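Z., the sequence and structure:
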Amino acid sequence: MAPQHERVRVRGPVVGAVAIAVSAALAFGLMAGTGVEVAGDDSRAPGPGPAASAEASPSTGPSRPVPEGKFPPFGAFLASDARGVARMEQFSRWLGGAELRVGHTYLPGNHWSDIAGDVDFLKAWAHWRNKKDDRMLVLNVPMQERNEEGVSDEEVRQLLRRGAAGEFDHHFRALAERLVRLKVPDTILVLGWEMNGATYTHRCGPDPEAWKKYWNRIVTTMRAVPGQKFRFDFTPSRGRDSVPWTQCYPGGETVDILGMDSYDQPDGMPFDEQVNEPYGLQDHVDFAKAHGKPISYPEWGLFRNGDNPEYMRRMLEWMDEHRPLYNTVTDYCPHGVWQCGDNPESSRVYRTTMFGRTGTATPAPTPTPTPTLPPTAPKPPTSCTPLDLGDWVEHWLGGKLCFRFDWWSRMG
């Protein structure tokens, strides 16, 4: 499965509608001779659904044994650009101050300039990474441009062979040099992810041997850049998909981490089957152990089976047991638990389990359960009459617009 990642794009109709509403409100306010303010709570998440805002504290449930040693580092994919950086702190607050040590973003795969790192948001992520020594930056790197444009198997085959011959080396050298300049030379690079599927132009199936040679060439090129300390994460999707992912494995010398993207799919598949299916979770753990590699879960979350708290509970338990180097839940609909309001039960499981987690295995005290109350609307400033523009517009504005009638007292 290849989710549509939230890259940098503006939704014209939404922005236009909000602009019209704001303009109308401002015009009305000026004609009335009033001041205009926004009454809102800027600490809330950017667009969380009911799952993120309905509870004052996480629900308590049956306690699970605390794993020995440190908790595995974790984070979430919240958006590729600078919005994702800003949301890290908000997501942490929703989790009771849990320590998010892993930031996750994606290079676009539209053009070679994207893959070479010519995107401004890398600066924001580098700044976040360098604030604390123990943080990790995970960067998904496409191996081909036009990566989600439905390129035919025959063209993919030719592109893989061209890559294996070194035609695209300079793009990856440029990326490595940019990351070193940004002082994130230890970035974890999820190169050519979900290569065993049929979606991406960087897929392996059309020519596995050329794909492996191309991977090895990219890694060799990037490791040759002075100052680099990159780790390369080989990450197929769970299950056989279009080709067994073991046929794409390029060898231990160029792979540092064995990852797996594991969503709750296909429809009706219980978690035990996700563990035991061929090329599933257990085969992944066993393969990594046999090759002396740590594991990771760069992408995971809900999907075909809807709001499935059993999957959420079992996946979190699986990761606590098998100790991946890191995991990052994909947090947008239909997969997520914070920015997606479609999964309230799974959100409750995730929040209860991860609430207050730090780098140690001594969990924060479980908050005392409190009755679930409806969210309290933020109060407008004094001497200010709110204007009802409707929930949809107020969401995009970040609160209600209101008009101050004491404007004369502030003139002079």
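Residues 1-64, 362-383, 391-400, 403-412 have pLDDT under 50 and may be disordered. The radius of gyration is 24 Å.

Let me know what you think.
H.
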